[in-house]
Amino acid sequence: MKAHFPEQLRYTKDHEWVEILDDNHARIGITDYAQEQLGDIVFVELPEPDTELEQGDTFGVVESVKAVSDLYMAVGGKVLEVNPDLEDQPELVNQAPYGDGWMIEIEVAELDEYENLMGAEDYEEYVQSERDSKEEEGGDDDDEDDARGFDADEDDRD
């Protein structure tokens, strides 16, 4: 299955996406490629509103049947809202990663951080290079580390 990457979004190498909603408000989630690599998502842990985070900070955790993976801030800012539906329906991340499966809305601290993220075409090339690397390493996806570098049974939470 080939993942898709909407043109209006910006992307990180950690497989998060960002959409500017208006002025300096943005929505963040994980990409179709990330959810595909993780498998069926069973739990999402997100920050409290009003939490201030910098670009690259961990803002939450997503747990799937394959792995537990940290979520990273694509751009710095203050959390305005978390997606309330994910508490009872974490599978929305699999079903609609760019729609109902969004994770947080933030007030962006520095719009330059957004401008410096990958566009859809660059991100698609990045994902293809990751897929090519995995093919060169051999083995099937079940034996591989997930998109974020966690072993299938690894749990980094305390």
Explain what you see:
It is a single chain. The protein has 5 helices and 9 strands. The chain has a single domain, classed as Beta Barrel (OB fold (Dihydrolipoamide Acetyltransferase, E2P)), CATH 2.40.50.100. 24% of the residues lie in helices and 28% in strands. A hairpin with a 4-residue loop joins strand 1 and strand 2. The C terminus is likely disordered. It has 158 residues and is α+β, with helices and mostly antiparallel strands. The strands form 2 sheets. The protein has a 6-stranded antiparallel β-sheet.
Summarize, please.
The chain is an alpha+beta fold.
Fold blueprint:
Elements: E1 10-11, E2 16-22, E3 25-30, H1 32-38, E4 41-45, E5 52-53, E6 58-64, E7 68-72, E8 77-82, H2 85-88, H3 92-95, E9 104-108, H4 111-115, H5 120-137
Antiparallel strand pairs: 1-2, 2-3, 3-9, 4-6, 5-8, 6-7, 8-9
Characteristics of this structure?
six-stranded antiparallel beta sheet, OB fold (Dihydrolipoamide Acetyltransferase, E2P), 158 residues, 9 strands, alpha+beta, disordered C terminus, single chain, 5 helices
